[in-house]
UniProtKB/TrEMBL annotation:
Protein's name according to its UniProt entry: Trehalose operon repressor
Keywords linked to the UniProt accession: DNA-binding, Repressor, Transcription, Transcription regulation
Pfam families: GntR, UTRA
GO MF entries: DNA binding; DNA-binding transcription factor activity
Organism: [Clostridium] ultunense Esp
SMART domains on file: HTH_GNTR, UTRA
Amino acid sequence: MEVKYLSIYNDIMDSIENKIIKPGEKLPSENELMQKYDVSRDTVRKALDLLEGNGYIHKIKGKGSFVLDIAKLDFPITGIITFKELSEKMGVSSKTIVHELDLIKPDKFLVKKLELSKEDLIWRVIRAREIDDKRIILDKDYFNNRYVPSLTKKVCESSIYEYLERDLGLTIGFAKKEITVQQVSNEDKEYLDLEDYNMVVVVKSYTYLDDMSLFQYTESRHRPDKFRFIDFARRK
């Protein structure tokens, strides 16, 4: 005999996966679920906790439980893939909004991150990435001007890597990445459609050309419900 909270979990999970309950919809209250399934509050809470733990709902204190979009985008950790390539691969409508494009003198933070000299200049590019009319990624890119002598808004709205490889003839080699979860910043609030999320997943990348020249530092800030970060590992 199936445990009661698992029965409730499976019933709600099936409704979410079959789009009977749609992303963004609010689930019935705990009291309503208790009446519907004729169970205790503790049983209902166990089912809701399991749904939240497995990524089906997001519980907001004082407001209730809301269904998440389970059709997350697979974002490879070890690969180097552009937003344009990712959205085309997933077959979703997308748009890049360029908020800032400047050639600037780097501060101490960026001098250290990009291993720069005092004479170097960098391109600062701040872009919001929109998928299905929701701004869910904020990319903050910094390029060493020695390797990227020019950038335009049109290039930044399309694909910078495509421009670097096709027009400038650069060969992008590899990247080191660091993934953390951070409290949302004022910049995140301004440029992203965060809804009720107060945390973002931040991927910091150091990207090198094939000759081992460090040419780019990026902070890519993701709304946590829209991406699944994946990797492939083999024991040697």
